[in-house]
What does this fold into?
Amino acid sequence: MRHSSGGRTAIRFRAAGCLLLCAHLLLVGWLTLRPLDVPWMTAANFELFAGIRADLALGPAEAVRRIGGALLLLAPLGVLLPMAGGRLLVSSWSSMLRTVTAGALISLAIELGQTGVPGQVVDVDSLLLNTLGVGLAHLLVVPGVRARLRRLPEARYRRTARAGDEAPGGTTPTITRVGIAP
It folds into this structure.
């Protein structure tokens, strides 16, 4: 069920989410799919956790930079995808599942796109870390923001009801019953 109260505010919120989502995806595409001029290339990594072990072997500072970079690359999608979707009254688990699945598919598309780009190397650990970053960002931000946004219309309605005014959306129109035509 889509959140419909607020009218223009909800539309602006979704439009901002779509705009920020497109801007972020363009930035990610430029960072990950542009050709690089490198003197040598490593082989593609199809072994799970091999890249993470190699990053950890480089030392703590380099490991944090590389692993953190992979976690943060697509992490904004964990917030921007639900924002662009505009759903407020939705199960937390279904939202998490949809967002993480979309993040994993976007990460997979990037990795597949890198197969034909000079200087870019396919890494299965990047797919794993990118997806984990999307999930963590969603888990840390979206449920709290949704809960706060759900409380706002109720608080407005309670204030309005105390003042003796009508509900925020106005009165509900009634439709007279029409019989079946002969």
Notes: Confidence is low (pLDDT under 50) at residues 1-5.
